[in-house]
Design goal:
The complex is a heterodimer of chains A (325) and B (728). Chain A is mainly alpha-helical and 325 residues long. Chain A is built from 14 helices and no strands. Chain A starts with a helix and ends in a 7-residue tail after the last helix. In chain B, strand 7 and strand 8 form a beta hairpin. The chains are: A mainly alpha (325), B alpha+beta (728). The interface between A and B is large, with 63 and 59 residues.
Amino acid sequence: MLSYIVRRLFYAIPILIGVNLLTFTLFFVVNTPDDMARMQLGIKYVTPEAIEKWKVERGYDKPLLFNSEVEKLEKLTNTIFFEKSISMFVFEFGRSDDGRDIAREIKSRMMPSLAIALPVFVLGLLVYITFALLIVFFRATYIDFWGVVICVALMSISSLFYIIVGQFLVSKLWHWVPISGYGTGLDATKFLLLPVLIGVISSAGSHIRWYRTIFLEEMNKEYVRTARAKGLSERIVLFRHVLKNALIPILTGAVVVVPLLFLGSLLVESFFGIPGLGSYTIDAINSQDFAIVRAMVFLGSMLYIVGLILTDISYTLVDPRIRLT
Amino acid sequence: MKFLLIKFWLLIVTTVQLTACGENNWNNPYAASETGENILYSVFTERPKHLDPVQSYSSNEIQFTAQIYEPPLQYHYLKRPFVLIPATAEEMPIVKYFDAEGIQLSDEAHSNDIVYSVYEISIKPEIFYQPHPAFVMDEQDNWLYHALNEQTLASIFKLSDFAYTDTRELEAEDYVYQVKRLAHPRLHSPIYGLMADYIVGLKEYAAALKNAELNLPEGEKYLDLRKHRLEGVQVIDKYTYRIKIHGKYPQFLYWLAMPFFAPIPWEADRFYSQLGLMQKNITLDWYPVGTGPYMLTENDPNLRMVLEKNPNFHDEYYPTKGMLGDDESGLLKDAGKKLPFIDKVIYTREKESIPRWNKFMQGYYDASGIGSDSFDQAVQLVGQGEATVTEEMEEQGIRLETTVAVSTYYMGFNMLDPVVGGRNERERESARKLRQAISIAVDYEEFISIFANGRGIPAQSPISPGIVGYRDGREGINSIVYDWIGGQPQRKSIQTAKALLAEAGYPNGIDRKTGAPLILYFDVTARSSEDRSKLDWMRKQFQKLNIQLVVRSTDYNRFQDKIRKGNAQIFEWGWNADYPDPENFLFLLYGPQRKVGNSGENAVNYDNTEYNQLFEQMKNMENGPERQLIIDRMVEILRYDAPWLWGYHPKDYGLYHSWYQNVKPNRISNNNIKYFKIDANLREAKRREWNEPVFWPIALIPIILMISFVPAVGAFRRHESSTAVRKA
């Protein structure tokens, strides 16, 4: 298995270079280094000299991808792309355009993002599995029918709607929790309740339906028939046998997103004033801060690759028939 | 099982109710320890980029720096038009004029004869900086924190982690140090380019500093500006300094009221230049050091920024005189009292308007602006279009404060464009008439009413109300666009516009030469769906003249690029004044300030010789009838040439809770928090009253669940107990 993991990690290098190149190209198609400088220096009294000075200080005065004015390998290395990308592979994200250390910012913003994403993930998994099992348990009753109808309805509504309605009902009308904000330690709980609840509900429709399908598929298998033939109650069949076997696809599907929990949610963080990595990324895009955008995309790609490797490993843990070679 | 669930739910409900009897409302976003404290709660939407006074310029930055740093001058809080008064200065600066030989000239000397102006500023003694680690010395008189080692740095993550702080008295040297910082090679002062044209030797100084920085020992980041002399600034004694500028520049006094000219102690610059601190984001750009009424004690631009009263703040008192009506509106109730009134200001980052508005309505923010989506809920128009708060707001004790911003929004015609600007005399004449016709056709009164909820006044020239040179009433109207009828301006008829259009060579919108319909291009930045109606409205305005308006939408970067290169034809733009002087508006149309070729602020590239000459004459004059005459002539030229479609001056509407006092809003002076006052007890009582938790939904949840599940459980049991084969 070790050789498999090492091989996958090596495969990751060209993927990360590709992602980096794509981000770089897309970013600089829309924003030139001059635009970035103007965005940082403000609108009033910006002179061409100030723009040039800003670019030189941050290394944006060089050609983007190919430097024809130098010799040999420097044609590729003495460029913005090379200089800005190479440090990422040793996790040196550098400084944002306003001079702040990006690694330090990421570190401090990771916890608020995780404070929402982790409870949403764990609670969500519990709630979705429970409800999916419940619907399967009551299959062929009106609960099954209305359960599916409600799931489809939940899937059809934008997550922004959940946020606005949630804030209106829970915070504005009933005065249960603060509308937005964030605290540290235990104080954070009152700020997290509503975003977590909304996070769970907004994804409920699709997840419950998916898990229901998985459970129903299991229900038709022969070992279920055998269990029933043995005289086991439906409850025992469902919770002791079906649940255990259905967990394989559920678990492997869940593992892939675990590393991405660190990256936070763009919309929820923005509306609830959570100082996480989601809002950090949005701010960077709005202020055309390439250093942050590049770092966040790199981090996202890397965590996704880690997630995929973890998924492969989790297959071997839950299904003994699978071997990684 | 069922009873167990009910018992559990009852326990939750009881616990919840008991908690509700506690000190705080459940939805209170602030710590319980802050209850009843003398704190002002405010918001910020965008994280500030710079808090170093030499770099910060945006309004979202200056709202912090203006409370912390003290330039020598400030604006009188209550007087209008705006009046400069001393802040840390003993009195207003003494200005002396000199000719090329260094001979002093009289105050009445003609500006052409003046080669240098020298501003002598004396500051008050006994002004001390806020407590700060940069000032701490050990028993051997060595700086304790100026050469931090790895061990000390290991336990430092923010400024408050330093165990000791100290202060020192403000000196004239600190102001001189800051002027030198305008040219610092590592700093980007937005006004460096402008000031390099005025402050004697600043340009050369920047080059010298660049050189000096290259020669710094490896690893050394501190560039000691005290060792490098700048010709244009001079320390006279501990409390006096001089600034020497080229020529006569009366507006320089306004710059002396901005944080760009606030003092920076060299100790702070030395302290923050340590690499170890920079790596931890502890820099002067993020942790200001000032003498002002407040100091930044918490700096988390992602979440909240906290200003606390500076314990070393010098004696300053609330003004005893104001304008007519200030006394009646309670603005002089605290006359003569020591400032500041508020102990702490908590700014919370709130990016979205919905939570921001709702928290204001719940009493968790003390003031709020009014978005277009909440305008109808907040404001109603009574009598002759007078704006007031709605009944709902009035019941909550919320009041509305309005002021005309020293800003202008206009539609610009690119004068380099052959159609709307003209390339030769004949084309220019035709283009002028075309612009005049459009000026009449586009009904900005309607625009303000529909799209700005009435928050604005139609502009008659670039100069906004409240600024010297602005004329009101009949003599203030733009006679090209308006007639004075029945004691008020009335827009000229569309027939007048059509006649002008025909004179321009486009009868009924058809080009006389080619016979083709006249098509004009409107360059805008990428628009949201709500802006589409504005563009439709604009098309209809041009349609009145049978002109087809083609909207060219692009992103902001490309749009700016078009303006810089002179590739746009018609576009929208705006300007917020830096200081209350007509020069700061009229320079926007001064020829040498044009964008194309000169990278100036004249976005339409207007260049009129007479106007340019008058501008040069006017900008150096003191306010008075002579200056007013020149301004009138300049405005007349502009109205005739119509390089802008004058647009409107926006009105600022702000909502304030009843406990928020001493508010006289304006956009020019920013150091106003020291005058504000909060009735914390009233706020607490109102918050409790408005935010009582509602319990019935908690009880409803288990009831709904039971109603849903009981029949299903029954059905399931029946299904489970039934036999596989039914008896016949």
